[in-house]
């Protein structure tokens, strides 16, 4: 385990829904004295357990979990709040001499935590009005040339016809004197400092196997206990129109309860939509520096973690 003079390691376990992150996270936590921080945008909600595949009370009793059941379904929870909550949890975990292990499939939360959150910059109305007036007068090429002069990095990644980003880059430079690329670099540095030394681990499997796992989990979920969970939420006054109640599973069960879909239709549609969601998750994580492991072959994962938490150099990821 790390000594007092070593860096502060952070482990992150990601992957698509139904891949088996919970079981592996419990094993990692037991072997490396971790506490788990949920990185799931739905597991924060109280009373939403079955549909979010939340760790069971028995699993939570094995390892201390954070960011579960912290808001009601009608409260707003976003990436900014997650970053603040996760950072507070990591500080507390390190204070107990343990290692934070972030586990989940919400790519936006991972990006916010590792790259920072872009601070809102107040753009003076006069700057905004002037730039838009010039654009309306047909000065797009001149505006783009100005962006290339003050922020060549942003100009290299922005198409001249991308009006929103063109104006944003110019607005930020005019308002702060710093190019957009510098704002983004500072944001990313802030995120890396927050995590200190993250090791990003990912679980994957063949697409057909993942979809079969999703189908089986969906069938197991769409039973009487989940129906009762959703009915209880509705009885408590949580509207079916709430963002939380529009999540996967909950909106499907509501449409069954209202008679719009049979249970079979709701189950089939949920499996289909969950497969689509898993595909989007994999796209998110493809752009992160994740070391991937087959869910059925994780033998090399534990030596890698051991080397990491001891502060030794890691072999290059493939």
Quick recap:
By secondary structure, the chain is of the alpha/beta class.
The sequence of SSEs as H and E is EHEHEHEHHHHHHEHHHHEH
Decide which structural class fits the backbone.
Answer: alpha/beta
- Give the total of beta strands: 6
Give the count of structural domains.
Answer: 2
CATH H level, superfamily name of the largest domain = P-loop containing nucleotide triphosphate hydrolases
Overall mean pLDDT stands at 91
Strand coverage percent = 5-15%
CATH architect. name of the largest domain:
3-Layer(aba) Sandwich
- Helix tally equals 14
Largest sheet: 6 strands, parallel
Q: Span between N and C termini?
A: 26 Å
Q: Tell me, what is the CATH class of the largest domain?
A: Alpha Beta
The rounded Rg comes to 23 Å
Would you write up a description of this structure?
By secondary structure, this protein is an alpha/beta fold. It folds into two domains: 9-115 and 205-309, Rossmann fold, CATH 3.40.50.300; 125-183, Histone, subunit A, CATH 1.10.20.140. It has 14 helices and six strands. A six-stranded parallel sheet has the order 3-2-4-1-5-6, sandwiched between helices. β2, α2 and β3 form a beta-alpha-beta unit. The chain is globular, with a radius of gyration of 23 Å. The relative contact order is 0.16.
What attributes does this structure have?
318 residues, 2 domains, single chain, alpha/beta, 6-stranded parallel sheet, Histone, subunit A, Rossmann fold, disordered N terminus, globular
